[in-house]
From TrEMBL:
<protein>
    <submittedName>
        <fullName>Dehydrogenase</fullName>
    </submittedName>
</protein>
<dbReference type="InterPro" id="IPR052515">
    <property type="entry name" value="Gfo/Idh/MocA_Oxidoreductase"/>
</dbReference>
<dbReference type="Pfam" id="PF01408">
    <property type="entry name" value="GFO_IDH_MocA"/>
</dbReference>
<dbReference type="InterPro" id="IPR000683">
    <property type="entry name" value="Gfo/Idh/MocA-like_OxRdtase_N"/>
</dbReference>
<dbReference type="GO" id="GO:0000166">
    <property type="term" value="F:nucleotide binding"/>
</dbReference>
<keyword id="KW-0520">NAD</keyword>
<dbReference type="Pfam" id="PF22725">
    <property type="entry name" value="GFO_IDH_MocA_C3"/>
</dbReference>
<feature type="domain" description="GFO/IDH/MocA-like oxidoreductase">
    <location>
        <begin position="135"/>
        <end position="259"/>
    </location>
</feature>
<feature type="domain" description="Gfo/Idh/MocA-like oxidoreductase N-terminal">
    <location>
        <begin position="6"/>
        <end position="119"/>
    </location>
</feature>
<dbReference type="InterPro" id="IPR036291">
    <property type="entry name" value="NAD(P)-bd_dom_sf"/>
</dbReference>
<dbReference type="InterPro" id="IPR055170">
    <property type="entry name" value="GFO_IDH_MocA-like_dom"/>
</dbReference>
Length: 388
């Protein structure tokens, strides 16, 4: 193989087009466009005009078997990611799947199991937020124990406002059979991934979800989920697509500190001088009096640091592409291994299943029960075939 990975882009839509531009603009120095594939005839003209040196295919299998590509990225509807990932790996071609890894865990598990049988191939997922320097730093802070053991986390991420016209833009959007869900599978997968990447995978979830709450759609447009990690540790996730002004606030409370992230741009990190319980037990009545009088000196108890990074547009995505190519070329560890993709899908499935059944659902839920409930909703829509 040459020193540059030849990437096949499946789907020349918004994401596929952005990746092609990153490569041709030199933002991914170890990668070139090997070929482009799209079923839309109009995209052939676009590709030939914009990327004249890249062969164009209207059948991704033909592209995989052409010898033109070393790796592919799947910029296609969610249901297709596992199938295309497996077909790619079958032909000994490296696979980078878009988020989410799929719609339901049963299909993502098949992808992961097949990828595990091909350990010599690179298998990644486009979790570009893992390449956000702010979240990378916060993961280090948590793993280093700088805020102690996590006791609670909560993320309110409602800055996904989408007008009705957005949902009316295509037949498959915001459908159970075409897209596989709403805000949980379209807008919020990055946050579901980051939440678990930093705070760990919960044991169970109880959710209240509204379907077609403020939009004329069948799928969810508002979600409130409470998760249980065991040992009294909890988390809350709130997301919606009808909040015009939106909020993005992520808090992690530890027993020796706290992290508050605003707008995914600025983090305020508080580090206690001692674990909170020790500070509490060490306070006498005079300290309590000072507390109520506002006379305690905060510097005796904690320090505060504000963290902020400049992040150029496109740098996170192009960084994942560059890292994926480096993994292929020299074994550089992946920022986002493809096998991690199942975590966010599993949590989204559990949130849906809890809402549908009205019960708390373990993260070890019955995959067949989830698929049956999903297929029931696909059948009610009457637009798409049910899934297996």
């Amino acid at each position: 193989m040459s020193k540059k990975v030849r990437l096949g882009i499946i789907g020349l839509g918004q994401q596929g087009g952005a990746y092609a531009k990153f490569i041709t603009d030199g933002m991914v120095p170890n990668m070139v466009i090997g070929a482009i594939c799209d079923t839309d005839p109009a995209k052939k003209e676009l590709a030939s005009a914009t990327y004249p040196d890249a062969p164009f295919y209207d059948d991704y299998i033909a592209m995989l078997e052409s010898g033109d590509v070393d790796a592919v990225v799947t910029c296609v509807p969610h249901f297709l990611h596992p199938e295309m990932g497996i077909e790619t790996l079958k032909r000994n071609i490296h696979a980078l799947v878009e988020k989410p890894a799929g719609v339901y865990t049963k299909q993502v598990k098949e992808l992961n199991e097949f990828a595990a049988s091909k350990p010599e191939l690179s298998f990644g997922i486009m979790f570009n937020q893992r390449n956000n320097p702010l979240y990378k730093k916060l993961k280090e802070i948590v793993e280093n124990g700088e805020i102690g053991k996590i006791r609670r986390s909560n993320w309110i991420i409602t800055n996904w406002w989408r007008p009705q016209g957005y949902y009316n833009s295509s037949e498959w959007r915001a459908t159970w059979g075409g897209e596989g869900g709403g805000v949980l599978v379209n807008q919020a997968p990055h946050q579901l991934d980051l939440w678990q990447w930093i705070c760990g995978v919960p044991k169970s979830v109880y959710s209240k979800v509204s379907f077609g709450f403020r939009r004329d759609i069948a799928v969810e447009d508002e979600v409130t989920a409470i998760v249980d990690y065991g040992d009294g540790v909890t988390g809350v996730f709130v997301t919606a697509t009808h909040d015009l002004t939106g909020t993005d606030r992520f808090e992690i409370l530890g027993d020796q500190g706290k992290i508050v992230v605003e707008g995914s741009k600025t983090a305020t990190v508080t580090r206690l001088k001692k674990p909170e319980r020790e500070l509490s037990d060490g306070m006498g009545m005079d300290d309590v009096r000072k507390l109520f009088m506002g006379e305690l000196n905060p510097e005796e108890y904690y320090t505060t640091e504000v963290i902020e990074f400049e992040s150029a547009w496109g740098a996170q995505h192009s960084g994942v592409l560059e890292n994926f190519a480096a993994n292929i070329l020299d074994g550089t560890p992946l920022l986002a291994p493809g096998s991690d993709g199942i975590n966010g899908v599993r949590l989204a499935n559990a949130i849906h299943l809890s809402a549908w059944t009205g019960k708390e659902v373990g993260l070890d839920f019955d995959e067949n029960e989830f698929l049956a409930e999903l297929n029931k909703r696909i059948a009610e829509e009457g637009k798409f075939a049910q899934r297996t």
